[in-house]
Amino acid sequence: MANVKPKTEISLAGTFASSAFSACWAEICTIPLDTAKVRLQLQGKQAAGQALAAPKYRGMFGTVATIAREEGLTALWKGIVPGLHRQCLFGGLRIGLYEPVKSLYVGKDFVGDVPLHKKILAALTTGAVAITVASPTDLVKVRLQAEGKLPPGVPRRYSGAMNAYATIVREEGLGALWTGLGPNVARNAIINAAELASYDQVKQTLLKLPGFSDNVFTHLLSGLGAGFFAVCIGSPVDVVKSRMMGDSKAYKNTFHCFIKTFKNDGPLAFYKGFVPNFGRLGSWNVIMFLTLEQAKKFFSKEVPS
Q1: Would you say residue 302 lies in a domain?
Q2: CA distance 13 to 138
C-alpha cells in the first residue's frame, strides 16, 4: 500500500502565531537593509536645499558602512522595537488572514487551483486591513530610523519607541500616528499582493514541474520571486510613504509629495534605494517564508482522513 501523508490542519490562532513569529524573525535579520533603504529614500529631501551637495549615502553597502562608522553598529537596528511591534500586528494579520480570506473569496466548496486574481484580491484585502491597524508602528519606526541623519550634536526628538509614540500624540495629536496612512495602505496592500499572491503562484507553478517538491529549495525560489515582484511594483509608493512619514510637515498630502518628489528629484527618485529595497525585501521574503513553512508544521495537528 502506498504511503499517504496524514492530513493536517492549523487553527486561525496557530496561523496568526506562526505568521507573526516568522515576520518578526525576518525583521530582526534584515532591518539593517531597511535602515539603509530609508536613509537613501530620504536623502533627496535632505539635499534639496543644498546646492551641489554631494550625497552622503551611496549604494546599499556604502550606506550600511557609513551608518555603522558614524553612528555605531547598533544604529543599523534603530527602529527594531516598533519594527517588531509592526510585524506582530501587520505580519500576523496580513499573512495569517490570507488563506481564510482567499477561501472566503473562492467559496468553501471550491476544488482545484485558486485563480490568480482571487489570490491578488485576498492579499490586497489583508494588506489593507493589517496596515490600517499597524500604521502607527510603521510611523514610529521610520521616525527613529530617520533621526540618525541629523548632524552630530543636534538633540534627538525621541529617546525610544514608547517615548516616540507619546511625543507624537502629545505634540501632533492622536491622528498624527496615522500620518501617511493613504500611501501606507496603498504601498502595503500592493506589496502584500505582490508578495503573497506571487509566492503562492510561483510555488504552485514550480510544484507542477518535474523534479520539484514542497521543500526548502522550492520555498527559497518562491520567496525570491515574491520579493522581486514586490519591489518592482511597490517602490514608488514606498518612497512617497518614507518621505511623508520622515517629515509630515513638508508635504500637504500624498499627491503633493508625489509631485514635489517628481519635480525636485525626477522620475528615477521613485526607484531610489531600489537595490537595498530588493536586498531587503528579497532576503526578508526568503527568511519569512522559509520560517513560516516550518512554523506552520509546529502549530499544525493531524486530523482523521
Answers
A1: no
A2: 24
Read off the pLDDT of residues 257-285 as tens digits, 9 standing for 90 and up: 889 888 888 888 888 767 767 877 888 88
Residues 142-151 pLDDT 10s: 888 777 666 6
Q: Which long-range contacts (CB under 8 A, 24 or more apart) does 60-69 make?
A: 60/33, 60/36, 60/275, 60/276, 60/279, 63/36, 63/39, 63/276, 64/32, 64/33, 64/35, 64/36, 67/35, 67/36, 67/39, 67/148
- With respect to residue 104, please indicate whether it lies within any of the assigned structural domains: no
Query: Is residue 252 in some structural domain?
Result: yes
- In the chain, alpha helices (H): 12-47, 60-71, 80-86, 92-96, 98-106, 116-147, 161-172, 181-192, 198-207, 216-246, 254-265, 274-299
Please give the model's pTM, rounded to 2 decimal places. 0.75
pLDDT of residue 53: 60
Within-domain flag for 211: yes
